[in-house]
Amino acid sequence: MRQNSVNFYLTLGGLAFLVWAFVYFQTLQHMVMVWSQSETYKHCFFIIPITIYLLYEKRALLKSLDYRPTWLLIAPLLFIQALFVLAQQLNVQLVAHFCAVTSLIIIIWTLVGNHVFKAVAFPIFYLYFAVPFGEEFVPHLQVITADISCQLLIAVGIPVYREGLYLYLPNGTFHVAEACAGIRFLIGTFALGVLLAYLNYQRVWKRVLFSLVCAFVPVIANGIRAFGIMVIGYVTDMQHAVGADHLVYGWFFFLFVLVILFFLGNVANDAQANYSSNGEVGKIEARYSVFLTSVLVLLLPLASSFSASKHSLSKDINVSQLLDSYYQVGEQASFNWMEVDDDTIQPSWTGILNEVPLRLTYRDDSDEQELVSSLHRPFNDDEFSLLKAKELIRRNNDSFEIIKIQNVHGHSKSLLIWYQLENRSVAPALTAKWQQFLNRMSGKRADGYYVVAEIPENLSVDIVLKRLGTLPLPPTETKAAR
Question: pLDDT digit string (tens) for 258-267?
Fold first, then answer.
């Protein structure tokens, strides 16, 4: 009799999982694509197998527990689904990824009940490490790495002059680039550290403490690694640790740090928890109403009444050629600060408008061409580094960001950055996303330009904005050609 209940319960759970996978299919596809294309998130492929293994280890315990579905999480599930609809309209993939994982966790919790979920809380919550998140911290980590390196160089008596992310030594210059930020090591180490904390410790305070150690140690270790590379370059008169070999040194150092963390994880570790069963078999209570309500709430995004306006461009046209017909093309030497965009991904144009050098990157804001995207790079970070953080300025209903960059020779430039939509100029990214949403809801266009303009030394910001005026978007009856 119980076997029939188990089979029926598993069937209901399987159906709920299939509905969830159907609703979030495109989001899950996007998550896997990010895992595959970014070296930062390769560890995400291991999260699901780890979760399954941890659940398998508790199989005996799970057989002895009582399964009682709960109504308490229907309201949170409804909120997450509404948030998912909003994320879709705004094309905010990070929020959509978060909603996908959170909704799965809520469904599991709802169907198994509080008592069972308490026993499997860590493996289930560990799924959050499958959300590709963290590259947003790279600029901050670059600054921290430069801070640590500079202070350590001063401490050991090596002369150093710092300007932004450039550190000038007597016999060479080092640039703390994005690749030097240590974000991959930080994310991977933290995910591994949280797992080790769960496996090695039973007391909550020990788990929290070790997890915090695994969050801070990689940041400090990366600064020490950068310092070590600079010292090697200094003492060898820049003969070593300035090319590909500094990557090798870095990975050996990171491996050493991991060994230390594994050692610390075994210090004062607690006795392993006993997941064996007491021989009793738990009860299974199948509440069809809870299951049906959960499935209906899951399906809400498909039945959403939002009908966002999407202006499709109907005929093929090369956006770069179209923009060439609008503006004067400038000398390429004037744009050495620019990051070259891949026209196969995002059509872009570089030129001069009324003596103002600028780059326009057009996106139609389809699923494949988000206007507000982390793919945008305002400047070539191989040649320049950020000298002054973003400053937000407002002019009437429009908003813009100003940054200051500098190259290794000490030459600095000020750049003006914004998103040009049909009805206004907007910065920063989150504000632009919200304006796109409002445009869709009101029937306006959501496509536009990502604009980066150089502020010439002899011109003020207001004069630059006046000279640029309103940048016209491609006609709605056209389509960007590849």
Answer: 888 888 878 7
